[in-house]
């Protein structure tokens, strides 16, 4: 038991393990995530419905979206942005790891007569011959990727954009990183049964890596038939550190905002958004 507890409480190297599939492809947890996505009154998995409406209105105005605009939404979830953007005339492709979310997105689009291509795939592996005016990665998805994965994504974005096309994404800030604290907790059916429909014992260890500005929420889930560990990594950024990554990928001009609804940039806010343009 002591050795097992030592393992549960061990601190891995930053991004030493990647377990996104356990979160997005497990049937039970993906259904839990979808429920959070579809709750328009909370900021979990997706923004509140009112914010998404404002965000889409700003995006449509900022990028002059019309019938000729091609958009790719990476990490589209159940289509909350993609469906709204299609309604204002854009041609949209949505890519997401979760079969459950993609199924909902397709059904929601079909119900209102929208033609949207939804692709159930890990977006790190996504390839297409299509080229886009705008690429989205919203709800700080970029922060969950390791440095090597972020290089892959930015190179992919750059190659998939038309000349003059843009990326819009949001990230967690240095201010938010300073507010995170290391902690450990334990509970029966931790997070109210989020991890399994069966009884389980859950351990949560939060580790901070000050030099890398990374936080890990490490969940160890012990069920009667199995034990699993889920690593939820989050990279935090300054505007300078984020722009360096875009610049290395060949992007030119940038604009900074407080969020993806176009609020003015605030260095004390917990998040910020960037628009980066392909040369």
Distance linking N and C termini: 57 Å
CATH architecture of the largest domain: 3-Layer(aba) Sandwich
The topology string of helices and strands comes to HHHHEHEHEEHEHEHEEEHEE
Q: CATH homologous superfamily name of the largest domain?
A: Vaccinia Virus protein VP39
Question: Would you report the number of β strands?
Answer: 11
Backbone structural class: alpha/beta
> According to CATH, what is the topology of the largest domain?
Rossmann fold
* Level-1 CATH class name of the largest domain: Alpha Beta
Assembly classification: single chain
Mean pLDDT: 94
Instruction: Extract low-pLDDT stretches.
Output: none
Beta percentage is: 25-35%
Global outline:
globular
Overview in brief:
It contains ten helices and eleven strands.
Strand-helix topology:
Elements: H1 2-8, H2 20-24, H3 27-38, H4 49-62, E1 70-74, H5 80-87, E2 91-96, H6 99-111, E3 117-120, E4 132-137, H7 147-160, E5 161-173, H8 174-179, E6 183-188, H9 190-193, E7 200-209, E8 214-223, E9 227-237, H10 239-248, E10 251-257, E11 271-278
Parallel strand pairs: 1-2, 1-4, 2-3, 4-5, 5-9
Antiparallel strand pairs: 5-11, 6-7, 7-8, 8-9, 10-11
Helix pairs in contact: 4-5
Characteristic key phrases:
10 helices; 279 residues; N-terminal domain of TfIIb; 2 domains; single chain; transferase; Rossmann fold; alpha/beta; SAM-dependent_MTases_sf; 11 strands; methyltransferase; Methyltransferase, putative
Characterization of this structure:
This protein has 279 residues and is of the alpha/beta class. The protein has 2 domains: 67 residues, N-terminal domain of TfIIb; 190 residues, Vaccinia Virus protein VP39 (Rossmann fold, 3-Layer(aba) Sandwich), CATH 3.40.50. Helices cover 33% and strands 31% of the residues. The chain contains 10 helices and 11 strands. Strands 1, 2, 3, 4, 5, 6, 7, 8, 9, 10 and 11 form an 11-stranded mixed β-sheet that branches. Helix 4 packs across helix 5. The radius of gyration is 19 Å and the shape is globular.
